[in-house]
Amino acid sequence: MADEPHPQLQPILDLVNETPNFEDVGAEVAREQFDAVADFTPSHEVYDEYDTTVEGADGELDARVYLAGEGERPVLVYFHGGGFVVGGLDTHDNICQKLADESGWNVISVDYRLAPEHPFPAALEDAYTATEWVDENPDVANGDGTLAVGGDSAGANLSAGVSLMARDVEREVTSDDVGPDIAHQVLYYPVCGSPFEEYPSRMENAEGYFLERETMEWFQAQYVQSPVHNRNEYLAPLLADDLSGLPSATVVTAGFDPLRDEGIAYAEALEDDGVEVFHAHYESMIHGFASFIGMVDASEDAIRTAVSGLEARQ
């Protein structure tokens, strides 16, 4: 364990520390603040980039396609982070652009419905429906039929949930629906822990490292508005007794992240159940670091980690 975050992170921590906490300003202002904070990282050129729509669980969803080059290519369906409350296509342009450019996969970023207006399971239902739709309509992203899902933080939670749902649909012998065929999961610092377990990293990294415990609890209250969902393994994948049969996964964790321990536990649980896992842990990094491309060297390495997992599935 590193003694303190990497010095390259200090300008980012200073910026965040000057910004009011999301839980103090409410969802609407929090979204404006998150958009502004996310705007400090540079964008990257890709072969082509365009906006489109995909099907969600309750109508069309905005989406953005990042083409890596000419011809049909495998497709990564990406879900942005933001605690299920903030974030959107613009806030995660850079990571999607970089993933497309480095991997040779086309990327389609999906703008799912946000809480508190749309609490769980709306975002997950959108993510599953969109993934299934892209699987059935690969032309939307010039796809060749190979499909992966990925995301960061809340988006990684959605990717894990979609993968579980797709596996379960496949196993349901009475169903005519075979579900989306997912080859791989890219999970950057996933939200995946049981609400009934206290993970030490949530206490150790409770404040001062970009994502704070009180903000996480506020996100949870916006997203999960009924305790009836607390034992839902699609909400908290670490509740699942059986993770066998899931697609291979890239799991990225950070030492100064409150989500560190549950991300590590999920990587270990996947491996224990026979799933191929590419796990990279960055001891001196904070939550969200993969998006700090051009500012933090480890961000580039985290992109390459995901690229290695995707390349293994081609």
Largest sheet, spatial ordering of strands:
1-2-4-3-5-6-7-8
Kindly name the structural category: alpha/beta
Low-confidence stretches: none
Q: What is the CA-based Rg, rounded?
A: 18 Å
The average pLDDT value, as a whole number, equals 95
In whole angstroms, how far apart are the ends? 34 Å
Largest sheet: 8 strands, mixed
The helix/strand order is HHHEEEHEHEHEHHEHEH
Principal-axis shape: globular
Number of helices: 10
Strand fraction band? Answer: 15-25%
Tell me the helix content.
25-40%
Number of DSSP strand runs = 8
Describe this structure as you would to a colleague.
- The protein is of the alpha/beta class and 314 residues long.
- 36% of the residues lie in helices and 20% in strands.
- The chain has helices spanning 10-17, 22-25, 27-38, 93-103, 122-136, 154-171, 200-204, 213-223, 260-272, 297-311; strands at residues 48-56, 59-67, 73-79, 106-110, 143-152, 184-188, 248-256, 277-286.
- It has an eight-stranded mixed sheet with strand order 1-2-4-3-5-6-7-8, sandwiched between helices.
- β5 (143-152), α6 (154-171) and β6 form a beta-alpha-beta unit.
- α4 crosses α10 and α5 crosses α6 (154-171).
- The two termini are 34 Å apart.
- The relative contact order is 0.16.
